[in-house]
Amino acid sequence: MLLSLVLHMYSMCCVLPAAVLLGTAPTYVLAWGAWRLLSAFLPSRFYQAVDDRLYCIYQSMVLFFFENCTGVQILLYGDLPKNKENIIYLANHQSTVDWIVADMLAIRQNALGHVRYVLKDGLKWLPLYGCYFSQHGGIYVKRSAKFNEKEMRKKLQSYINAGAPMYLVIFPEGTRYNPELTKVISASQTFAAQEGLPVLKHVLTPRIKATHVAFDSMKNYLDAIYDVTVAFEGTVDDKGQRKEAPSMAEFLCKECPKIHIHIDRIDKKDVPEEQVYMKRWLHERFEIKDKLLIEFYDSLDPERRNKFPGESVNSKLSLKKTLPSFLILSGLTAGMLMTEAGRKLYVKTWVYGTLIGCLWVSIKA
C-alpha cells in the first residue's frame, strides 16, 4: 500500500502540471485571439507589446512548475547578463527541457515575453500551440535543401520593422543529442570529418543555415549572441557513462537536482558575417562547448566533474515572478469550466482552434 502511494505521488508530480499547462491553453488562446482582433487596425508594435506580455504570463506559469515546484537548483557560470538585449541564443540540444532552460535565463533578464524560437517544421501541427508559436514570432524550418531562407528572412524583417524585442533561440545541432542513439552521433561525426572539421564527442556537429540567416538578417538590430552550454546533473550511469537527459515528464518528477548553465556573451562585432567564415566560427564555439562537457562528464578528477570551470552563481527564482501567472490562468480556466456556456466555449476552442490553426500554418508557416 505504501509503495502504491509513493508511485501515485510520483505520477502526480508529472500529471498535475501537464493537466494545468494543457488545460489552460484554450483560455490563453481565447485571450490572445481577442487581442489579435482588437489590435487588427493598430500599428503592429502595439499588438506585439501586448502579445509579449501575454506570452510572459503563460511562460511564467510554465516556470512555476518546472522551476519553483521541482526545486531544481540553477547554477550559472561565465557571463551573467542582467539587462534586456536583442540577442540570438545558441545552445546545445539534448532534451525537450532545453526550451524551458531558455525561459529560465530570459526571465532573469526580464525578457521572458521576447523569447522566440526557430523550430522544427513538424511542430507547427501541435494543437493550438503550433499556430500560436508562429504568431508570436516562432520560425518553422525544414532541413537541408528544403530550408526556406527567403521566408525566414521575411519573417525576421517583419519583427525588426515592428521594433519587436528579440530573444531568438536556435539549437544549431538540429536534433537532440542522445548518447544512446549511436547511429546519429556516428553520422554527425562522419559529416564533421568529411568537412575537415574536428570531431565532437558530447555535442553534434552544428548546422549553419538558420544561424547565418538569423544573424545576417538582424546584424544591425542585435546587441550580442549568447553562446549557452547546458548540462543536467544526474545524467551519468553507474559506470560513469553519460545517459539520456531527462524528458519534461522526468524533469517534473524531480529527476534532475541541478542544471548547470554556462554563458558566453559574444558582441556582434566579433561574429564573422560571411557564411563560410561563420561556419568555422560556429564549429569552434561547439568545440568550446564540447570541452566544457568533457570536463563536466569525463574529468579524471572527481572534484572537477559535475560542474563547469570557474565560479558559479546559485540563481533562485522568486515565486513572485511565477505564482501570480499560475493563479490568473488557472483561475480564469476554472471560472470558464464552472458554467455550461463556458464549457462549450472551452471545447470549441480546442476543436475549432486546432483545425483553424492547422489550416493557417499549412498556408502561412
TrEMBL record:
The keyword Lipid biosynthesis applies. One of its GO terms (cellular component) is endoplasmic reticulum. GO terms for molecular function: acyltransferase activity. The keyword Transferase applies. CDD domains: LPLAT_LCLAT1-like. Keywords: Acyltransferase, Lipid biosynthesis, Lipid metabolism, Phospholipid biosynthesis, Phospholipid metabolism, Transferase. It holds the Pfam family Acyltransferase. SUPFAM superfamilies: Glycerol-3-phosphate (1)-acyltransferase. InterPro entries: Acyltransf_C, Plipid/glycerol_acylTrfase. Residues 87-212 form the Phospholipid/glycerol acyltransferase domain. It comes from the Eukaryota. GO terms for biological process: phosphatidylinositol acyl-chain remodeling; phospholipid biosynthetic process. Belongs to the 1-acyl-sn-glycerol-3-phosphate acyltransferase family. PANTHER family: 1-ACYL-SN-GLYCEROL-3-PHOSPHATE ACYLTRANSFERASE EPSILON, 1-ACYLGLYCEROL-3-PHOSPHATE ACYLTRANSFERASE-RELATED. This is 1-acyl-sn-glycerol-3-phosphate acyltransferase epsilon isoform X4.
